[in-house]
Amino acid sequence: MKEKVIGRPAGLYAEFPRKGGAAPTATHYCPGCGHGILHKLIGEAMGDLGIQDRTVMISPVGCAVFAYYYFDCGNLQVAHGRAPAVGTGVSRALDHAVVISYQGDGDLASIGLNETIQAANRGEKIAVFFVNNTVYGMTGGQMAPTTLIGEKTVTCPTGRDPRYAGYPMHMCELLSSLQAPVFIERVSVSDIAHIRKARKAVRKALEIQRDGKGYAFVEVLSTCPTNLKQDAEASTRFVNEQMEKEFPLGNFRDRSEETEPLCRNVSDFTKEAIDKAFNLDTEASPDAVEDPAFGQVLIKAAGFGGQGVLSLGLIIAKAACRAQRHVSWYPSYGPEQRGGTANCSVVISGSAIGSPVVYESNILIAMNRPSLEKFALDVKPGGVILYDSTIGEYDIPEGVRGIAVPAMEIACKTKAEKAANTVMLGVLKELGVTKLPADAFTEALAENFAGKQKLIDINKKVLEAGAQWVRDNL
Amino acid sequence: MVTQLVKGNTAVVIGALYAGCDCYFGYPITPASEILHEASSYFPMLGRKFVQAESEEAAINMVYGGASAGHRVMTASSGPGISLKQEGISYLAGAELPCVIVDIMRAGPGLGNIGPEQADYNQIVKGGGHGNYKNIVLAPNSVQEMCDLTLKAFELSFKYRNPAVVLADGVLGQMVEPLKFPTSAVQPQIDTSWAVAATPQTRRNLITSIFLDFEQLEGFNNKLQEKYELIEQQEVAYEEYMMADADIVLVSYGISSRICRSAVEQARKKGIRVGLFRPVTLFPFPEKELFKLAQTGDRTFICVEMSNGQMREDVLLATRCMRPVELVNRLGGNLITFDQVMQKIEEVAKGGSI
């Protein structure tokens, strides 16, 4: 390995025109800042590993917001703290990419802590370089999550007091509690001896990306003479003596040897593949025909969650579709589904449907008393109410035909306790009130349980039992 | 052409898959969750990429990453989740990144409830995040359009390098209708002139929204405004129903426009000359068309929307307050009823209003 640290690494531009200004080879960083050193180490490794063509560098918000001035690779600049999420997006879209997320302590450990932990936990193929200098730089020297106890910043002017501001965050230790990361190490760029070790860690993190093995995290203890109001010597001493005491250097994990490369699937954009995913060759409904004379049939089905009223409505909708009618189905949704009553609206029409929501129905199917009480008064004159006979006595509104169907009883007799909804379907089929042909119901039932022959058979039996009840009793 | 009975939220995923969408990044929220559910099964089935993000912010920033790569990517959410995404949407607009965001609106403010509302109009159509930007906004009113306009949203977002939003509501997301499947599938290409695709020819590219120089940022902002003007000139879409001789014009989008259509038919039977003007694009808003309607004849406009009149403000601006613009609305998760619209139509027809 080269011992020389000074000199232009291949991964950095020779000049920085994106920066502008009179000094095309000078960075925007303050004298004595550690960012420049880390830039060189990353640039050098990128060049040596020959990965620049496939590298995407993500610049954060903070002093390194302009990292893209310097790195000779694809560059993104992103929102504060969101770099690991952006990196996830890049990596998922571009499986071959080497993704680098370069972040400071406020960005990574404060506003972006969730993104940091979650990307690490997913084991995203990203190298994260975390510059910890215990202070917000670009924003003007505020307290960072890594500010030491007693350390003064502009927002803890008398020193960080853990009773009010908590304790320094240890990111390497925190991430070490996760399973997925491949590599975690804390290094320092305070002086030459430290920089040599840092170079190795940087290189390792990028090798892991080159090989597509997963998440690598390198925390870099760094100097900030400007905001910590130190000269060069004091800032080096601060890192070596005070920061290292709080943030011990060393490798926390290296599973690079035993980790296999992770290759993601190749996207299929062909029409054939999408058609197949939706079974377009086997599952198709005929298109509706315009037939204004048909008018509209408005149906409401309601009952307890679990009584199958939503699927009852859906099978009616499928039957209507088979009969080439315009149709819509609209359920009550959310918490209602998980307790209490559920209901759905079905509109069958000879022409285009306006509102899919049924307020006044022609047909109400009520599987329990609360549903019957809630919707019975909204049934139009001349309409029909089917309700389960276990509901007991109920005063059906005038001008409406009420039919108490022993749906649960019939279902039980047919040894299909849960299929009371299918009994109701059979009653509807036989009554003809939906104006749909009887065979449309049978076909819709088969379509609904497609591929599950046992369920089709039992439900057909129940459907016919419902129809038979109508013939015997009405 | 194949037809299937499909749920609105599923139709969004179908549209996205035929549009060549490569990555889906999302977070669960009712009533948009089925989009996430369907994406989690269909995207991997086709080798495409799906991530359930840790938060709405993370999801929109994953979109930023995938879009930067030049791929077709999307996310979906509902009101509160969209509010959280606004930071990311501003960055996407600022970095001129194409992507599709679907908003299945629910009732607010705050946690509100999961019933349908159309009260995200302002936060989607007017921006919502910081800065002088606009989203392209498409408003479907059927399951068919949930699919078709998702496809269209991808097309427009790439044409203009701008985020495009499909703005729907809880009813459209949850309802089932027949869907005619798309007859072709887009084979997406990466535009190497701007994308950062981890390739030699895109190595020099940079995606950013930062301009330190004030003049430069003003210039960029002006360039954005020119783009929006171009979109206004070229992409306005609307639908008219029985408008030829209408004295009363219902202006309505999304699910509310479906209820209006029924009301128009009923009112016509009673001899009242009512028509429906439905904006399909909310940005660009069909301003010129509404202005023309306001200039000719003594029309009364009735805005029908599930909000406190957020779209009505744009109708007032478009018609320059030359004609009365009434409002029929419901809030809090309640749907506008047919009777409510009929009552207002009859009131206006009798001259009892204004």
Explain this structure.
The complex is a heterodimer of chains A (474) and B (354). With 474 residues, chain A is of the alpha/beta class. Helices cover 36% and strands 18% of the residues of chain A. Chain A is built from 16 helices and 13 strands. Chain A has helices at residues 35-49, 83-93, 105-111, 113-122, 162-165, 171-176, 192-210, 232-246, 271-277, 309-322, 335-338, 369-375, 407-413, 420-431, 438-448, 453-473; strands spanning 55-59, 74-77, 98-104, 126-132, 183-188, 216-221, 250-254, 296-304, 326-331, 341-349, 361-366, 379-388, 401-405. Chain A has a 7-stranded mixed β-sheet, sandwiched between helices. In chain A, helix 2 packs parallel to helix 4 (113-122). The relative contact order of chain A is 0.08. The model of chain A has no long low-confidence stretch (mean pLDDT 95). By secondary structure, chain B is α/β, with parallel strands linked by helices. Chain B has 12 helices and 16 strands. In chain B, strands 2, 3, 4, 5, 6, 7, 8 and 14 form an 8-stranded mixed β-sheet that branches. In chain B, helix 3 runs parallel beside helix 4 and helix 10 packs across helix 11. Chain B is globular, with a radius of gyration of 20 Å. At the A-B interface, strand 1, strand 2, helix 2, helix 4 and helix 9 of A face strand 1, helix 1, helix 2, helix 3 and helix 4 of B.
Low-confidence segments of chain A: none
What is the helix/strand order of chain A? HEEHEHHEHHEHEHEHEHEHEEHEEHHHH
Mean pLDDT of chain A: 95
* DSSP summary: helix tally of chain B: 12
* Side-by-side strand order of the widest sheet of chain A: 2-1-3-4-6-5-7
Which runs of chain B of at least 5 residues are low in confidence (pLDDT < 50)? none
Shape of chain B: globular
Residue share in β-strands of chain A: 15-25%
Kindly state the percentage of residues in helix of chain A: 25-40%
Largest protein interface, residues of each chain: A-B, 75 and 81 residues
> How many strands, which pairing sense, and closed or not: the largest β-sheet of chain A?
7 strands, mixed
Q: DSSP helix count of chain A?
A: 16
Terminus-to-terminus distance of chain B:
48 Å
The radius of gyration of chain A is: 35 Å
Determine Rg of chain B (CA atoms, Å). Answer: 20 Å
Kindly name the structural category of chain A.
alpha/beta
Number of strands of chain B: 16
Major sheet of chain B: size, sense and barrel closure?
A: 8 strands, mixed
Mean of residue pLDDT values of chain B = 97
Q: What letter string, H or E per element, gives the SSE order of chain B?
A: EHEHEHEHEEHEHEHEEHEEHEEHEHEH
